[in-house]
Each structure stands twice: as C-alpha cells, then as structure tokens.
Design goal:
By secondary structure, the protein is α+β, with helices and mostly antiparallel strands. Among the domains are: 283 residues, Beta-galactosidase, Chain A, domain 5 (Distorted Sandwich); 124 residues, no CATH class; 74 residues, Maltose phosphorylase, domain 3 (Sandwich). The chain contains 19 helices and 44 strands. Strands 1-2-9-10-11-12-19-16-15-14 form a ten-stranded antiparallel β-sheet, with helices on one face. Helix 12 packs parallel to helix 14 and helix 16 packs parallel to helix 19. It is globular, with a radius of gyration of 28 Å. Keywords: Glycosyltransferase, Transferase. InterPro entries: 6-hairpin_glycosidase_sf, 6hp_glycosidase-like_sf, Gal_mutarotase_sf_dom, GH65_N, GH94_catalytic, GH94_Enzymes, GH94N_CBP, Glyco_hydrolase_94_b-supersand. It holds the Pfam family Glyco_hydro_94.
Length: 814
C-alpha cells in the first residue's frame, strides 16, 4: 500500500494523506542551522548542536505521536469559527484536500477546507541562520472570506537536556521582547547568564495581536490541539515572564473571491558580535535580526532563495548521475540516496525522530563511515570533518566513540573502548585521498583529545590507528574486540570464575579477552589502504611492515576465524566461539561474512564462496539479510546486550540494513551480479514503496533496521534517516554494482550487474574532469572486454588521471 508517490522531475516525494504509518519527515538546512519537519508540520529547529542550541521544543514519546511543531491555525469566521491546519495536525480537522511534498531541503504543504486553500513552503536558506515559511491563503468561495490566522512556535530554553529536566530553575527563566507592534517576537532566555545570543520569530506584516506566554495562548489545561486564544479568536498580547515562552501572531484576513494573500514568517538565530557591549541589563543587539527579517520580507526574495537552494542541489547531484532503463535505480542514485548521505553528514546520529539530539553527538565510527557516501559531493567539508574526527583520538590510537558537534569535545558519557573505531579513520581518510588526490592532508598537524600540545600529523594519527589494532590481539591472533566492535551490543569482555556470580570487565592485560573476526576483516582491508597511503608518502618500509601485519591477521582469519561453512563472529572472554555451528543460538552472523569477503579474505582459498552461500541459505529473507541466526531466545550474560532484545529486533536477528551492502559488495567481489542486486533491492526504499503499510518508515530513505523473521512484525522498518546504511548503500551501488571506483591513480570502471540490467550512461565528475561513461552490458554480470577513453583503447580497468584534462568520453564493453 502506498501513501504517496515519487515525483522524479521535481525531486520530491508527494504524500497524499497526513495519516502515514509513522511521521514521514524531511531535513531542512545545509550548513549550521537545521530543522526537522514532518508531513504534519511537527518537528524542531536548532543551531549547530541539537542538544546545546535547541531553538524550539519537541516532545518525544508523546501521545499523540509527533506532538509539537511550528503550526499555523486558520479560523474561518464564515464557517462558524471552524479551525484547521495546513498540515492537519494539531487540530486534525478533516481536510477537503491535502498534499505534502518533501523536496531537497524544503517541504511544501497544500491543503484546503471549505473553499479556502493554504499553500505553505518551508525551507532553510543557503547562507542564513533562519527558517523561512511562505504561507499563501486563497479564497475559493463565492463570497468574501473572513479569516483569522494564528502562528505558533514553542521556544526551548537552549540546552534541550536541561530544558526537559530542570524545571525548578527553568520555570523561572523565560524572557521575551516584543517589537513592531508584535510582528517581531524575541526569545532571549538565559542571555544575561552566559549566552550572547537570542532567537527571533517575525512576520512581514502588521499583526492584530500576539502572545508569548504558552499558558495564555493554550490555556492552562489545553494542548496545541485546542488553544484558548484560537477558540476565542483573539490573542491576549501576553508577555512571558518565567514559565514557558512561545511566539504567536494573529493576523485577521479578508479575501475577495479568488483573492490570495501571502505572509512570510521567519524563525532565526542571532549571535551578538564578540565585542558587543551591553550598555545596561536587558539590551540585545536587534539590528542583525531586523536585517534578516527584511531580507526575506518579499515573495520575490523568498523565491530567489529557494531557487538558490534548488540550484545548489542540482549542481551537487550532477557529480554522480546515471541514466538507465531502471527507473528505481536512477531515482535512488540520482536523488534520494545521495540526499540522505548529505543529511547523515550534517547530523551523524544526533537528531532524528528516533534520536532525541540529546544523548548522542557526532559518532567517530559513524562520521567516518558517512564520509564514504558524501566525499565525492563536498570534498572540502569532508577534509574538515576528517580533522575534526581525528582531533578526538587518543595517543594510543583509540578514541572517544562520540563527540559534540559544537564543542568538538569527546563525549565522556559514552567514552571509548570500541575497538573498530581507529580503523574507520583510515577508511575515511583513504576515501578522501582517492577522491581528491590531496595527500597534503596527511601532513596536517592534528591534536590528540583536542590538545595541540600532543599533536601529530594526520598520518601519525593513522599510524596510531593501525598500531592499535596490530598490538591489541588475542590468543588466536585476532584483534581484540574491546567494549564492542561495529555491533555495539556484542559486549564479550566479561568473565567469572563461578557461574552465577556477577561478571567483571577486564582490560587487555588483566584477564581473558574477547576477539573479533569482523575487526580482522577491517584490518585486512584498511591495513592495505594504510599501506597504500604510506607508499604515496614514499615510506616503503612502513608499507612493507603494514602488509606483514595484515598478513598475520589474514592468516588468523582463515584459520581460527573459519568455522567450516562460514566465518566465526568472535571469541568471547572464555575463548569460546561466538557465531559458530558449535553454538546453540547465534550460530552465524552477517558481519564477518560480508566484511571478510569484501576485504578479499578467503577468496583464493574457496572460503568466500561458502560463506556467502551460507548467508543466502541461513540469513536471507524477503525483506533483507538478518544479522544473525538462530535468534537468541534466552539471555546470555557473557555476550552482553545482544540477547537483551526480543528475537527479530535490532541486534538479535533483526535485518540491519547497514550491513546488507557488505554482503552485496562481497557478492560483486565474487562476480555475482544477480545476487548482489537482489540483496540491494530488498532494503532499497524505491523497491519497497508498495509495502509502506508493512515497512512504516519513509519510502524515500533508508532505515537502520527492519524487523527480522523471528519478530512479530517481520518487515517493519525502524530508525530511519540517520544510519550508515545510506553511505554504505551508495558505495555499494555506485562503486561496486555500477562499478565506478576512485583509486589513487584514477577512476576504475568494473561493473557487476544483474544479467538483465541493460546498458546505461553515467556522468561522474572527478578531480576537475567530467567522465561521460557509456556501458554496454551484453548480458554479462562482470568483466570488462574493452575500455575506450577519448577514442583510445586502454588495457585494464583504470582510467589514468591526467591533470588538466577536463573531459573523458569513456566506452565500456562488458
């Protein structure tokens, strides 16, 4: 069942009913100012950091769901005071028509009731810290329409965590200012204490009233679905003092038949200049706010800003663009997959409808993986991100697992000990250099734990990453897992002399330690990439040493890491196998099967083919490949959190969409185009739009996980948007299935396609050149017969990069 449709020409997903299975959201903003907005106008806004600089409130886990946003109430005096909202919520009056169009950095709503039509456009401009909403109201009645329009936002007291807990303090701090007769409302809470900033909400017209007190607007016992002010038809001109500040405008409207009026609302964030001196208590510099409001006070200015946003996305998405006979592949590759990669760049895992923006900031592992999906789009910002991530690393190569985007400081609440983290820094840096050829980044001085007194070059950091894994190995010669590897819930470093006693966590030198075959796969892949970076710098001795260390782990992976038909997942603190046929439950895990094979482990020995066959036979479902089987039906303390979930959910036999691409990539390594594409399709939004009533999450972006075969709601998606699935899937489809892979020497072209994919054309911008690539498949799944570049046939698969060449016309015959 569908709840909308793709409009590929407009690059929009069109939602045709507000009653979607879950709120279907969009992200607004590209630089520092961001908003989340749902298909019913729910959501919230923040500047830089969703925790520390939250502008508007949102209530998670509320009833009804998605309750609080930026609302417009239309009161129709011709219809006995009927009240409705353009996005349906919060009043939920049945609308005569409804449509929500989520586009790239903007959302549009078009609704009507009783022959009054509302068209709402909301977006964040490219170069200003504000959200602009253009609301046009049209009278389609035969008589004059008399209406009252009420806006509504509820301010957050900046620190979202403190805001929802510290009531004894916060219910005495709300302060506002009113300007221009109420058309401009300022939120300045806490500025006097330590914050040289404020928020503003203004409209480009005179108003008939305003409110800044939530209790005055809603009434002490009402919610946003039935505000007193809207029911009474008149604002109270309240001035919040303590308690909860809001911003609301009242605009009374008369429209002749067929007449329209447009109002522009701007929600902004302002920082006073560093040298701003307050002459007296209560003074804030309003000039920047008025300048911002003036900039967007006309329809022409708003339309120009929207065009600038659309032009930005057109240029960005032109960097990698395919034209094939596969409409759904083109849709995902050209629009939605890359768009989601950019959102994960901005958000990491910090702010979604499933992440509150409070407990998590930027992830070390997460951000490195996300970089794989956007480095081709914004290489300069990818460079900055790599330096930010590396700056949180410790001198031994380990790292804070997360850091706050505003402070760039490590999150001590989460801490460190995730032993896969160091290798992801090599992965991200390698991807950046293969994309750009910029080896100068390796000579950048980067601090440890943001302390420049102990800085090294970025290459020095990568050596620390490599050496951390090389020197932290267990009794089988496999890397130590630490607190966890990619699977945060696989916590194996527990030990007890006597069953039933409480378990203790031991460090590497203190007792039995657990090992990870998954990290072994990472070390083989990214150890080789580290060696290649060493060679770029002319350090052949270090490259040789690195490859020797990689070979040791490779050998351990095909011996101690092999279980006969698939790769073992790990060894626990007792040196017992995890993910083995010897186990009663959790006999096979997806992670090492995918990552070891994509790293090339076991290919020449014939093990890789067996491992992937075992995945297909034991883990595959119609909705994707499960993370493990059989599911854990009882709690295993020695395994940590993994068995704490019910069977079929999350790490306990759920379908983690994030590592499905590893299996697909592994299949391309083996030349299995049909199987690789089959795995790709099962979690691809465009291919599962028809089962939205089962899948539930947005049909235009990837989810983190889907309920597995053991779950009651098999196929139900959860945790959409902020997931490594986006980056890894784009890597899979763009670099392995379509086969356009950046190397240090140039673009490699080596597609691995399903037999019936057909010919395709692809544009890829790379290092200042435009590559116009035409692929003739000839029914082949893999293998390039001819590679012709600018009329000259080349041997091999790599198109050598030539500085100064602006256009490459490439013909590939498979």
């Amino acid at each position: 069942m569908k709840y909308g449709f793709f409009d590929d020409n407009a690059r929009e997903y069109v939602i045709t009913t507000p009653k979607t299975p879950l709120p279907w959201i969009n992200y607004l903003g590209n630089k520092e100012f961001f908003s989340l907005i749902s298909n019913t106008c729910g959501g919230y806004t923040f500047y830089k950091d969703a925790k520390l600089l939250r502008l508007t409130r949102y209530r998670y886990n509320n009833v009804p769901y998605d309750n609080n946003g930026k609302y417009f109430y239309i009161k129709d005096l011709n219809e006995n005071g009927l009240v409705w909202n353009p996005g349906w919520q919060p009043v939920k009056t049945t609308l005569d028509s409804y449509e929500c169009r989520h586009g790239l950095g903007y959302s549009k709503f078009s609704s009507s009731k009783s022959n009054v039509k509302a068209d709402l456009l909301t977006f964040v401009p490219m170069n200003d810290n504000c959200e602009v909403s253009k609301l046009t109201i049209t009278n389609n009645k035969d008589t004059v329409a008399k209406l009252s329009l009420f806006s509504y936002v509820e301010w957050c007291l900046w620190n979202a965590d403190d805001d929802m807990k510290n009531f004894q303090r916060n219910l005495s701090t709300g302060e506002v200012e009113i300007a221009n007769g109420g058309s401009v409302l300022f939120h300045k809470t806490e500025y006097r204490e330590r914050r040289n900033h404020y928020a503003v909400y203004g409209v480009n017209t005179e108003v008939n009233g305003y409110d800044t007190s939530r209790d005055a607007f809603l009434g002490a016992y009402n919610g946003p679905d039935s505000p007193d002010v809207v029911a009474n038809g008149k604002c109270t001109n309240s001035v919040a003092s303590g308690w909860s500040p809001i911003a609301s405008h009242q605009i009374d409207i008369e429209l002749a038949p067929s007449e329209s009026k447009t109002f522009i609302f701007t929600l902004g964030y302002i920082e006073n200049p560093e040298d701003q001196k307050w002459e007296s208590y209560g003074v804030i510099n309003k000039k920047p706010a008025f300048a911002m409001l003036d900039k967007y006070k006309t329809v022409e200015a708003v339309d120009a800003a929207l065009k600038e946003l659309n032009d930005y996305w057109s240029e960005l998405l032109g960097i990698y663009h395919i034209k094939s006979s596969n409409e759904k592949v083109d849709r995902m590759v050209n629009i939605w997959n890359q768009y989601q990669c950019m959102v994960t760049f901005n958000m990491s895992r910090s702010a979604s409808y499933y992440e509150s923006g409070i407990g998590r900031g930027m992830g070390f592992r997460d951000s490195c993986q996300d970089l794989l999906g956007f480095v081709h789009l914004i290489p300069d910002r990818a460079r900055e991100r790599i330096i930010d991530i590396a700056s949180t690393q410790f001198q031994d190569g380990s790292a804070y697992h997360q850091y706050q985007p505003l402070t760039k400081k490590g999150n001590s609440d989460i801490g460190s000990g995730f032993n896969d983290d160091p290798l992801w820094l090599i992965a991200g840096t390698s991807a950046y250099i293969r994309e750009t050829g910029d080896i100068s980044i390796l000579n950048e001085m980067v601090p440890f734990d943001n302390d420049m007194s102990v800085a090294k070059t970025l290459m020095g950091h990568l050596k620390c990453s490599f050496d951390f894994t090389a020197t932290h190995k267990g009794p089988h010669g496999l890397p130590l897992i630490g607190r966890a590897d990619w699977n945060d819930c696989l916590n194996l470093n527990c030990f007890s002399e006597h069953p039933g006693e409480s378990f203790q966590t031991f460090g590497p030198s203190e007792g039995p330690v657990a090992e990870s075959v998954f990290i072994a796969g990472m070390f083989v892949k990214y150890g080789e990439e580290y060696a290649q970076l060493c060679e770029l710098l002319g350090d052949d001795a270090e490259a040789k040493r690195a490859r020797e260390e990689v070979q040791k782990v490779y050998d351990a992976a095909i011996t101690a890491g092999w279980d006969g038909e698939w790769f073992v997942r790990a060894y626990d603190a007792y040196s017992n196998k995890v993910g083995s046929k010897e186990c009663e439950e959790g006999q096979i895990y997806i992670e090492p099967q995918g990552f070891c094979v994509l790293a090339g482990i076991g290919v020449k020995e014939g093990l890789a083919e067996k491992a992937l066959k075992s995945v297909e036979e034991r883990l595959d479902t119609k909705y994707g490949v499960m993370i493990l089987q059989p599911a854990y039906t009882k709690y295993h303390l020695e395994l940590g959190e993994v068995s704490s979930y019910p069977p079929g959910y999350k790490e306990n036999a759920g379908i983690f969409c994030h590592n499905n691409p590893w299996i697909s990539i592994a299949e391309t390594v083996m030349g299995h185009g049909d199987r690789a594409f089959d795995v790709y399709k099962k979690t691809c939004p465009a291919y599962i739009e028809d089962i939205s009533e089962i899948h539930c999450t947005e049909p235009y972006v990837y989810s983190q996980m889907v309920a597995g075969r053991d779950a009651k709601f098999h196929g139900q998606g959860k945790n959409s948007w902020l997931t490594g699935t986006a980056a890894w899937t784009f890597v899979n489809i763009s670099q392995y299935i379509l086969g356009i892979y950046p190397t240090h020497k140039g673009l490699s072209v080596d597609p691995c396609l399903p037999s019936d994919f057909g010919d395709f054309e692809l544009t890829r911008k790379y290092r200042g050149g435009v590559y116009n690539i035409s692929v003739k498949q000839n029914g082949s799944q893999k293998g390039v017969k001819k590679l012709i570049v600018n009329g000259k046939e080349l041997s091999g698969n790599v198109i050598p990069y030539e500085e100064g060449v602006k256009e490459y016309n490439v013909e590939v015959i498979m």
